[in-house]
Amino acid sequence: MELSEDELTAAIVRVLSGAGPEVIVGPGDDAAVLAAGGGELVLTADALIEGVHFDLGITSARDLGYKAIVVSVSDIAAMGASPHAALVTLALRADLGAAWVIELYGGMRQACDEHALWLVGGDLSRAGAIGISVTVTGEVAPGRAVTRAGATPGDLIAVTGALGASAAGLRVARSGRVRSDLDRTLLRAHVRPVARVGEGAVLTRHGATAMMDVSDGLAMDLGRLARASGAGARLRLVDVPVAGGATIADALGGGEDYELLVALPGLEALEAAAAELREAYGTPLTAVGEIVAGEGVTAVEPTGAERPLAPEGWDHFRA
Amino acid sequence: MELSEDELTAAIVRVLSGAGPEVIVGPGDDAAVLAAGGGELVLTADALIEGVHFDLGITSARDLGYKAIVVSVSDIAAMGASPHAALVTLALRADLGAAWVIELYGGMRQACDEHALWLVGGDLSRAGAIGISVTVTGEVAPGRAVTRAGATPGDLIAVTGALGASAAGLRVARSGRVRSDLDRTLLRAHVRPVARVGEGAVLTRHGATAMMDVSDGLAMDLGRLARASGAGARLRLVDVPVAGGATIADALGGGEDYELLVALPGLEALEAAAAELREAYGTPLTAVGEIVAGEGVTAVEPTGAERPLAPEGWDHFRA
């Protein structure tokens, strides 16, 4: 395919343009937002495809089900919304037994229980490879959804938690050797990611101007946030919180961390949000840069040297 | 796989049991219904998989996109609800160009425009075969959603439109020869099905006790409606409205007609609904049998002889 995922998405968004006033946030953000009744309905959908997003050689049915739910819940969290219900369409290879399918749903059920949402329906079909598509609905107070598009120059950029653990955990899984507690921690980060639902609500309350989850690596996702906001960004590499056992390359290009990337209107908001996140959830919030006029992401090296940062994240169409 | 689709679905529903009071209709019906704000939110998801549900040798990208939306809108219609928004996750083969994808979305956009809903988001990935999963949300007034489970002995069973055209149209498509206007009509029924949204609302207003769309053939789907209602059904084969160019076998076992199968509380309701459907939409409503005590579907032959009707519909796991 000659286009990147982002270019193809942009072309699709043009086909779909012209939505009515009910559509508060349309295609292209973490989730869509619609006026519904007295509130706002938040909607997101993601698919996990065997051989692209997972490999049964290194993932159990239960972990796979768990992760399939979390990936979409994370998009709801990134809007500052609360998850409400999940729907699953499942394409299954004929050689998988009923026990495998029940394990998969058991993992989904567990993720739904932990993130306080209902798994209410879906659809089953046969296929040559496993495909799991999960839609999650959420709720947000009118006007409170946080998109990728609201950041302005001068806003500070921060991330929750630490980055790169999922990519490092995938290396552990592929090696087939779990040799230490650190390996176990990294593996768990890969197979059992956490969606930052409570954190998203706190960041929204502290005035987040733009927010998204880090699903494709910080380099690519910060580029998306800056582009959606019509601005550029400076990223201080030395400040990027890299998970223990991971590398800065994992943090910038690995993906699947599901931490929140947020723009906040100043140091006071950032410090207040950080204090509340630490107290309420034990989750760090780390300032890593700022929104600037212009376009693209500029990396600031430890030496102070600056260079354009290539979007080395996970691109399904160029990988 | 050792279980049928219905048996596996039943096992999954058990894993997911224990939903809270917000969940008005859970897994196992055409769509789920949740309390949300002041109203009720209706949710459904369906997947179309290349090689299982469609074949690019006989389906254009535009027709495929159109149908992918209609399949899920039909589930919303079958609850007596109005569609609101659609989300699409798309798994694409790497050899498909951007032009093909834009055509596909063009067909989805057309179906959304015709059925008055917004296509608000989704997700793209690579895969070895094309998979399209569509979630549609809808709205219904509190307490007005019509499930499969409310029919009681004595209710009359009716279907909208005529059945079997889609299966006959698939034969035309596979033959590669469109030789007559009838062939063209059948082909169109297969590639451009219609979701009976307005009809579902009319049937609800006339007191429908149970309703579903006929996606897997009348034999299987009537069996599902009767089972969900804890009852049996008698089906008068001579009264089944078979589309011109189709056979009774197409109507009973073909599937993908997306007509509505409805139970109504008596002849007066049925005649009033039929009159309104004819006048408002030009859509026939045909009485084909009744709900009875017991279980299973009994076919009444033209001779008056009765026999149990096997569920010869489309079962993804036994086909």
Instruction: Report the sheet-strand fraction of chain A.
Output: 25-35%
- What is the CATH first-level class name of the largest domain in chain A? Alpha Beta
Largest sheet: spatial strand order of chain A: 8-10-7-11-9-12-13
The percent of residues in helical segments of chain A reads 25-40%
Distance between the termini of chain A: 11 Å
Q: Give the largest chain-chain interface (CB within 8 Å).
A: A-B, 74 and 74 residues
Low-confidence regions of chain A: none
Question: Count the helices of chain A. How many?
Answer: 9
Q: What does the main sheet of chain A amount to?
A: 7 strands, mixed
CATH superfamily of the largest domain in chain A, by name, is PurM-like C-terminal domain
CATH domain fold name of the largest domain in chain A = Phosphoribosyl-aminoimidazole Synthetase, Chain A, domain 2
Oligomer: homodimer
The tally of structural domains of chain A comes to 2
Number of strands of chain A: 13
**Average of per-residue pLDDT values of chain A:** 92
Coarse structural class of chain A: alpha+beta
CATH architect. name of the largest domain in chain A: Alpha-Beta Complex
Based on CA inertia axes, which overall geometry of chain A fits? globular
Entry keywords:
homodimer; 319 residues; alpha+beta; 60s Ribosomal Protein L30, Chain: A; 2 domains; 7-stranded mixed beta sheet; 6-stranded mixed beta sheet; 9 helices; 13 strands
